[in-house]
User: Which sequence fits this backbone?
């Protein structure tokens, strides 16, 4: 009987030690916040803008591939229309060429602040067989790194490459 009582008391202690206290959780979250602030201040905003440039280039590549796939699937040409101000791309939208007029397929995507985006053409279009109508090049430049999205005319293949000096 006495042994049974000892086992119960040990079991209660083990159950009590399983949960974290609110104070321990707050301490861990505070430490994670301090480490995050140190990392951001160490690498600075330029690193974040360089990552943003790569992310934007990959998003543009994905949207170009989606326009190509939609063109092949529907037989209607799809294209990205780039809006530029002073030679720099500010937004782009995917469109479909239809017999009744062009129709916006997707919402407009804006260029993140801190990036300089330039393009060789303002319309990036694909033909019914998935080929690009021209050789397209779009460059997204952050403070230290530049990324280039290019579309090959014959195949419509879209590539992203780091073109930093």
Assistant:
């Amino acid at each position: 009987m006495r042994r049974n009582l000892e086992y119960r008391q040990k079991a209660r202690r083990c159950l009590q030690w399983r949960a974290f206290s609110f104070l321990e959780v707050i301490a861990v979250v505070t430490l994670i916040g301090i480490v995050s602030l140190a990392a951001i201040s160490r690498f600075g905003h330029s690193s974040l803008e360089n990552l943003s440039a790569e992310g934007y280039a990959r998003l543009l590549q994905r949207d170009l591939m989606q326009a190509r796939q939609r063109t092949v699937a529907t037989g209607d040409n799809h294209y990205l229309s780039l809006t530029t101000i002073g030679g720099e791309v500010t937004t782009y939208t995917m469109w479909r060429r239809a017999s009744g007029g062009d129709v916006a397929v997707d919402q407009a995507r804006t260029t993140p602040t801190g990036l300089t985006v330039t393009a060789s053409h303002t319309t990036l279009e694909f033909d019914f067989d998935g080929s690009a109508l021209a050789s397209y090049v779009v460059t997204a430049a952050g403070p230290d790194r530049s990324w280039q999205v290019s579309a090959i005319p014959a195949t419509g293949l879209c590539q992203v490459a780091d073109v930093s000096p």
In short: Residues 38 and 44 are 10 Å apart (CA to CA). The chain is about 40% helix and 30% strand. The first strand starts at residue 78 and ends at 85.
